[in-house]
Amino acid sequence: MQDTLKLVTQVFGVSGNEEDIREVIFNEIKKYVDETRVDAMGNLIAVKKGRKKKIMLAAHMDEIGIIATFIDEDGFIRFSNIGGVSPFTSLGQRVRFRNGITGTISAEEKLEDFKGLKLGKLFIDIGCKNREEAEKLVKVGDTANFVGEFYVQGSSAVSKAMDDRSGCAVLIELIRNMPKTENEIYFVFTTQEEVGLRGAKTAAFGIMPDCAIAIDVTLTGDTPECGKREVKLGGGPAIKVKDNAYIAHPAIRRYLEELAAENGIPYTLELLDRGGSDPGAIQTTGIGVPCGGISIPCRGVHSPAEMVSLEDLEYCVKLTSLFIKNYKG
Amino acid sequence: MLIKELTDLNGVSGNENEVREFIISKIEGLCDSYKVDSIGNIIAFKKGGGGKLKVMLSAHMDEVGFIVSGHSEKGFIRFKAVGGIDDRILPGKKVIVGKKRLSGVIGAKPIHQQEREEREKIAKIRNLYIDIGADSKEEAEKLAPLGEFIAFDSDFVKFGNDCIKAKALDDRVGCAVLIEALKHSFDFELYACFTVQEEVGLRGAQVAAYNVMPDVALVIEGTTCADVPEVDKHEYSTVLGNGAALTIMDRTCYCDRELVQYLYDVAVNNGIKVQYKQTTTGGNDAGQIQRTGNGVKTASISVPCRYIHSPVSVMSGRDYEAVERLTVAALYQMSRDRAFKGGW
């Protein structure tokens, strides 16, 4: 699990640019599934055939990042956000483009008030003398992810893109250790979640599942001066009640709670006050899809140092496994 | 001139009939069939030469404007915006109310009678009113009933070397390009969709795309152009005169990267001026089309429009030509390739 997590978190895959991460995940899972396909939005859909319920498991493989919008005469790059990128966490960070070029983010020096910090006042320096030199390395429209090395300390793992490569790692782990089930399982590694749950929409249309579960990270309530939330690092999976994009189907939510309680899996309930996740797009597909979420508690979400607990991840695999094995609708 | 004819028409979101009828009169005979769906989109179909690809062109017929929301005792009209309109541009503007095309003006208290603070404050739409010359509430209600649409009143004017000023360039320029494209024949099945209610939430396109279920979609648009004083160079978005603008990403859509590159290459190979839109703000029908069905490879080609969403939108005639040429050239290229070469 730890090796998979390290592998998938470090790969490039800013929303809309998921080619590399898709390739890596494909190679990790191809020999364990019955078929795979990629749709027009770039979702990777892997199927384990079955005769009973069609269950869609979704983890998004895209990550937040930046997109180069303008290169000035001196070779500095102006940029815009892809997904929820705060100017405050961006300042002083390194970003890496797909071709490996690394840049540093600085603010215009005349900026006096920290409150006035906006992405439009920041720029990326790739150490070039002028526009011509810079354009050989980075073009307008190129995207970069934040640099954040992977490390494990105790039972915690830290990296960029835990959101939602940790969810991808859970699915990969599950694919390799599939429980016996008659249900048909669709493992979907979705695209463009961070810019508006976009990939999940077309993936769900192509599958028309009987139910769907998203494995995504969620905010915790266990850091200084943070919002009040039951979810905490090491507290086990957070079973989704609601976020800003959807309300979990009560039957799914209750079933997950039952499964966790019966099998000694610690859990908390998640009522996310900020942000949404893929079921927001999945549940209104076709005639409607009952949806739920098994969330991974994560500190520092949308920063280059997102922290998850390896124990929580193991429990997420276990709970998801129990669900797909036993779900009868 | 087609753009003059198109921008002289009124088609505030949800009230696109005038534009729809005009477009139908222009495309009858250019396509094999057309239909108007339940939300009001025109879907024009042109059979191809047997190629498997299904291509959708999309341009929205609607424009930003207003809606009558109330009447004062003395016969003035209260109104609300339909689509994104900057309150600051409103006082002193001429408008046309309803199908009867009544003249109206957006009024404000005379400067003589304004307190200093009033003068420094920006008038909000809720404090403004439209004067249609009515004497009483009853008369106003009769002339401009609740819910009646209101459009900007603005003439099509050519000025400078190559500039055109009009209202509703967003997106009658796109409609004009689609009409032009229907004059050509391609290997694939072409669906030219003239959509409704883009300005209030990309609504028509969602239905049109579901109906067509295309493989590839090109959205032809008018887009922001902020190459004006007081704006930093890196926030220009597009530059007037620099040609057709390709969107990489905006708030609603991350355009298919291979398709964008394909369009860029077609432009370069055909000597058509092309630029990338250099901001990620705004959005258009591409956002809905891309996410329809199993997903659609989607991109936007736009004409830069200064002062967009105002009665004095300004564009360059050459930029318009570039968009028209690029659209047609890209379709011919896809026709020759018998596919959009790309895909995962």
TrEMBL record, chain A:
Gene Ontology molecular function terms on file = aminopeptidase activity; metal ion binding
Q: Does the keyword Transferase apply?
A: no
Q: Where does Zn(2+) 1 bind?
A: 60, 163, 216
| EC number(s) per entry | 3.4.11.-
Q: Which cofactors are named for this entry?
A: a divalent metal cation
- The answer to whether keyword Translocase applies is no
Specify the domain of life of the species encoding this protein.
Answer: Bacteria
What biological-process GO terms show up in the record? proteolysis
Per its UniProt record, what CDD domains does this chain match? M42_Frv
Question: Which major enzyme category is it?
Answer: hydrolase
User: Which keywords does this chain's UniProt record carry?
Assistant: Aminopeptidase, Hydrolase, Metal-binding, Protease
Q: Which SUPFAM superfamilies match?
A: Aminopeptidase/glucanase lid domain (SSF101821), Zn-dependent exopeptidases (SSF53187)
Question: How does the cofactor attach, per the note?
Answer: Binds 2 divalent metal cations per subunit.
Q: Which residues form the active site?
A: 193
Residues the record lists as binding Zn(2+) 2: 163, 194, 302
Its family remark reads: Belongs to the peptidase M42 family.
* Name of the featured protein: Putative aminopeptidase YsdC
Q: Which organism is it from?
A: Ruminiclostridium hungatei (Clostridium hungatei)
Encoding gene (name) = ysdC_3
TrEMBL record, chain B:
| Cofactor(s) needed | a divalent metal cation
Where along the chain is the active site annotated? 198 (proton acceptor)
Q: Does the keyword Nucleus apply?
A: no
Q: Which positions does UniProt annotate for Zn(2+) 1 binding?
A: 60, 170, 221
Q: Which residues are listed as membrane-spanning?
A: none
Instruction: Name the domain of life.
Output: Bacteria
Q: Where does Zn(2+) 2 bind?
A: 170, 199, 309
Q: Does the keyword Protease apply?
A: yes
According to its UniProt record, the EC number is 3.4.11.-
| InterPro entries named among the record's database cross-references | Peptidase_M42 (IPR008007), Peptidase_M42_aminopept (IPR051464), Peptidase_M42_dom2 (IPR023367)
Which controlled-vocabulary keywords does the entry list? Aminopeptidase, Hydrolase, Metal-binding, Protease
Per UniProt, the enzyme's principal EC class comes to hydrolase
One GO molecular-function entry: aminopeptidase activity
Per the annotation, how and in what number is the cofactor bound?
Binds 2 divalent metal cations per subunit.
**Biological process (GO), any one:** proteolysis
What family does this chain come from, according to its entry?
Belongs to the peptidase M42 family.
* Record-given protein name: Putative aminopeptidase YsdC
Q: Record the organism.
A: Ruminiclostridium hungatei
